[in-house]
Design goal:
With 511 residues, this protein is of the alpha/beta class. It is 36% helix and 12% strand. Keywords: Cell wall biogenesis/degradation, Glycoprotein, Glycosyltransferase, Golgi apparatus, Signal, Transferase.
């Protein structure tokens, strides 16, 4: 079994002691090189070296504080193994790739190519990208395609290669213009012979139109099977809608027979191993501030507009959520923060239960106010009962920035190592964090101002209904109402998102 398959199993087994993961932060960090089309040899050796030197792949399951009890099904593991073999056979180092992407196909070349591809291209922020990549990979599993990614400079150093001794990078000298020119030539010939497109561009973003949404009709899939190259532009987690499509339903039920809320959990952990550089930042912060706490609480605070929702209102909401609604934190006092136990000498010993709060937000005032508040409580308790920490605050989201994406990925993984998560509504950043953690989050209510008093809506937060991310914008080809279900109709594992009016998400049971 390959290293990638062993990794996904390792997430579900008991961890070793944290002492085993202590190491020097100056671990080897070879540059991830994008292949040249038709390459091989020396570059393939570099790729293999990167595979074996990916520290996070070996250590991530050790340092996590919350472990999923859900194990991938044997059928999913077998499909992943098949995929790895196909990816190796069809990756950019292969002859099959060269033949499929050749500008002028040979006259005797078979119409049926060995390999078919789906190429992911980036749009919007890192959370959207990770969600759409995982959905694209699920589609590749279902349709026997090979997933390649067209990472720009802002993403190329974020992750290790996911597939053993292979690459998922589209070659840097590969351009879609080659295939588009080939498409134009075939257009001229289509009157003389049956016409099958070589390349099709798919737009599955929030602003897609009715034509784009035809992708989600089962009747469209046999036509897409004949297209060797699909180029995808998406910022959505469209995996839930695949469960509604009759052509995929049986296969998905075998992949995820018991726990439909772990689709992103398993695929995300399988695909996304932080690069050594990113992993060094993650472990350095975790060891310094989070590792020694008895409880770790992650607060992910996304503000779409401070003009519509003042920071003071959001701060009051967060405090109400963690202290009153969810009672995640019991404020320090003599009975709730200490326990008395008998030591080996027979004397009573008092221990203090400590809580670490990680604040992930672009805006620094949330950390500042929470830190000030809990410092005062710590002084009353006479000990550091609650510590508040942050990694950075950049005030604005910077698209296309490698540095910004690296900081965002550090925050996502640190949040995924917490025991409890409070996330903002409609935030794909939060979706990825709780999905990787395998946690059902507490979700803050949307706090758009509706009156002049600027009161916090009650309840301040609600427990989510699922560990899965939300598909925010989707087609309407299949009925999702369980009361309307007919034989062969929609499966009862889809329901409306609790934080997005028109969204859908996977659940194990309807609530």
């Amino acid at each position: 079994m390959t290293a990638s398959l062993l990794l996904i199993i390792a997430y579900s087994i008991s961890p070793y002691s944290l002492l085993l993961q202590r190491r020097s932060s100056s671990s080897i960090n070879p540059t991830i090189q994008q292949p040249v089309a038709g390459g091989g040899g020396e570059e393939e050796e570099v790729l293999s070296s990167e595979q074996y030197s990916c520290v996070s792949r070996q250590q991530l399951h050790i340092i996590r504080s919350s472990y999923s009890s859900s194990k991938p099904s044997p059928f999913l593991l077998s499909r992943l193994k098949e995929y790895e073999q196909r990816h190796k056979r069809c990756d950019p180092f292969s002859e099959s790739f060269n033949r499929s992407s050749r500008e002028q196909p040979e006259e005797k070349e078979d119409v049926e190519l060995d390999c078919r591809y789906i190429v992911w291209t980036p749009v919007n922020g890192l959370g959207n990208r990770m969600l759409s990549i995982s959905s694209s990979f699920l589609y590749a599993l279902l349709t026997n395609r090979v997933l390649l990614v067209d990472f720009g400079p802002d993403m190329v150093d974020l992750f290790c290669e996911p597939f053993h001794n292979s690459t998922w990078f589209l070659p840097r000298d590969f351009t879609f213009k080659k295939l588009l020119r080939r498409e134009e030539e075939e257009e001229e010939q289509k009157k003389e012979m049956p016409y099958v497109a070589s390349l099709l561009q798919l737009f599955l973003s929030y602003d897609n139109d009715d034509y784009d949404k035809l992708f989600f009709k089962s009747e469209t899939q046999p036509l897409l099977e004949k297209v060797p190259w699909l180029v995808l532009r998406s910022d959505q987690y469209f995996a839930p809608y695949l469960f509604l499509m009759p052509c995929f339903r049986a296969e998905l039920d075998r992949m995820f027979p018991d726990d439909k809320e772990t689709v992103f959990h398993h695929l995300g952990r399988y695909l996304f191993s932080p690069s050594n550089q990113v992993w060094g930042h993650i472990t350095g912060f975790y060891d310094a501030y989070l590792a020694k706490a008895d409880r770790r609480i992650g607060l992910q605070i996304r503000v779409f507009s401070l003009d519509k929702t003042p920071a003071s209102l959001i701060l009051s909401q967060v405090i109400n959520c963690i202290q009153e609604e969810s009672r995640i934190i019991i404020l320090p006092n003599a009975t709730t923060t200490t326990t008395t136990t008998a030591s080996s000498s027979g004397r009573n010993r008092t221990t203090t239960t400590t809580t670490a709060i990680l604040v992930a937000s672009l805006f620094g005032q949330f950390y500042t106010e929470l830190n000030k508040m809990y410092k005062e409580w710590n002084e009353k308790a006479g000990a550091t009962v609650v510590g508040v920490y942050r990694t950075n605050h950049e005030e604005i989201q910077v698209l296309g920035s490698s540095s910004h994406n690296m900081k965002a990925l550090v925050d996502i993984y640190l949040l995924s190592m917490c025991d409890v998560l409070v996330t903002s509504p409609r935030s794909t950043f939060g979706y990825v964090a709780h999905g990787l953690a395998g946690l059902t989050p507490w979700i803050l209510q949307s706090q758009d101002i509706e009156d002049e008093e600027q009161r916090v809506k009650e309840p301040a937060c609600r427990r989510g209904v699922s560990k899965e991310p939300c598909l925010q914008f989707h087609a309407n080809y299949y009925d999702t109402n369980p009361d309307h279900r007919e034989p062969g109709g929609p499966v009862p594992v889809i329901m409306d998102c609790e934080d997005f009016q028109y969204g859908l998400k996977l659940v194990n049971r309807r609530v």
